[in-house]
Amino acid sequence: MAGKAILFSWAFGVPLLFHPVSAVLVHYGVAALVLGNALAVVFQVAHCVGEEAFPLPSTDTGRIEQAWAVHQAETTVDFPRPNRVVAWLLGGLNFQIEHHLFPTISHVNYPAISKLVEQTCRDLGVAYTEHRSLREGVTAHFRWLRRMGMPNAPREGERCAGARNGNTSDAGRRPGSALSV
Questions:
Q1: Beta bridge partners of 129
Q2: Minimal CB count within 10 Å: which of 51, 60, 119, 172?
Q3: DSSP SS3 for 160
Q4: How far is CA 80 from CA 75, 136, 141, in A?
């Protein structure tokens, strides 16, 4: 409760000391809209594209049958890793795989870590996916939305196609491989 009071004091109380209510509300609304849209784009590009896996839990156990780290790497997508401006603007959230694997490490270390994670994934046969640009990621997201709107259409290159039939294995990954980082 104290946190909410501090938030409202900083977001509304202090600005209201210097500006009219209408100006404070307009600026707060614009800031919330911009931040909300930016985060929505980041999360859609990193999690709702056809390149990442969508494994289903086993019908017997109700659990995902992969190692936690493998699941994080295969169900998330990075986007323009070399772009320092995007990394700065998003606070490193364009390194989503690394963010999921190492949530307590500062984002300034993600560029160096990403190279190690990518190589480890390759060595273990775990999929590591990156979009080379934000535009490529957004395009992949809209392609995925279109496919989701046509559930019976064939899905070229779908990595987890068997998941619709209860098979959660990934043909591109060696059985029993795990990502130990």
A1: 77
A2: 60
A3: coil
A4: 17, 9, 15
